[in-house]
Design goal:
TIGR03620 family F420-dependent LLM class oxidoreductase; TIM Barrel; Luciferase-like_dom; oxidoreductase activity, acting on paired donors, with incorporation or reduction of molecular oxygen; 12 helices; alpha/beta
């Protein structure tokens, strides 16, 4: 069973996470290193991160079910936990319909994939499911350790906790910019919202359920939308925004630092929330 993920995780895409970064955020008190994107089934980048660190958990956010079959992913899981028991969380997801020609009946695909992981001996407690909508959130709670929503708000977290009940983990991601000037902060955050997410129906539908409209999706995203999914300002203001997720029912927040000096962002957040 995977160890505690801690209150906060440090999220970066798998091809940019280095052992040096993993060591640094572990020392700051982060419990998890999240590796985003859709890595290959071999997950060869995971062991160097675990080897360099002492106790931090490495989590994928996410392995794309359309991209790789369950069997090789399960083989990688067993290889990793055989060397580093309790320190790997297999985050899985279905990707985006705009990016996958075979994207048909995604819910059925997820159920089938989880069935195959069961058969391959990947424990429910060591896997999580990317989830935005109610149906998939419920599946995450029933068939995995919990849900890993991406680009959401504390209100989404509150609704997700109501759907999941008390036991499943709820592990939202939230982007962070250490900048107090609104224009500069949004200039850093907006491109990470605009591309590709403003062109992906599953994210647009999720935001619509939260009360955003087509006006919020135009011209690269409204200030209201950007401010909702990208925390910026002083370390204290950022810490307060991340705490809203925890107060709304999240067990853990995956903090995605944006900007030129991402370690400085992780350090500032840690000083507010982990010291």
């Amino acid at each position: 069973m995977v160890n505690s993920l801690g209150k906060l995780g440090a999220f970066q895409f798998h091809d940019t996470v280095t052992p040096e970064l993993a060591v640094a955020v572990e020392k700051l008190g982060y419990g998890t290193v999240w590796t985003g994107g859709s890595p290959d089934a071999g997950l060869s980048f995971v062991e160097p991160l675990l080897e360099a660190t002492d106790h931090v958990v490495v989590a994928t956010g996410i392995v794309n079910m359309w991209k790789d079959d369950a069997a090789p992913v399960a083989e990688s899981y067993h290889r990793i936990v055989g060397k580093y028991p309790g320190r790997f969380l297999l985050g899985l997801g279905i990707g985006h319909p705009e990016a996958t020609k075979e994207y048909q009946k995604p819910y059925d695909k997820m159920v089938e994939y989880l069935d195959q992981l069961d058969e391959a001996g990947v424990p429910v407690a060591d896997r999580a499911l990317a989830a935005l909508g109610p149906k998939v959130l419920k599946l995450a709670g029933e068939r995995t350790a919990g849900a890993h929503p991406y680009l959401t708000t504390p209100e989404h977290t509150r609704q997700a906790r109501e759907l999941l009940g008390e036991t499943p983990l709820l592990l939202p991601e939230h982007k962070v910019v250490l900048e107090t000037d609104p224009e500069k902060a949004r200039a850093i955050g907006r491109p990470r919202v605009q591309r590709p997410y403003l062109h992906l129906s599953n994210y647009l539908n999720s935001w619509r359920r939260l009360g955003f409209t087509d006006e919020d999706f135009a011209d690269g995203g409204s200030d209201r939308l950007v401010d909702a999914v990208v925390a910026w300002g002083t370390p204290e203001a950022i810490g307060a925004r991340l705490t809203e997720h925890l107060d709304a029912g999240a067990n853990h927040v995956a903090v995605q630092a944006l900007g030129d000096d991402r370690l400085a962002v992780y350090r500032a957040v840690a000083q507010v929330l982990l010291s």
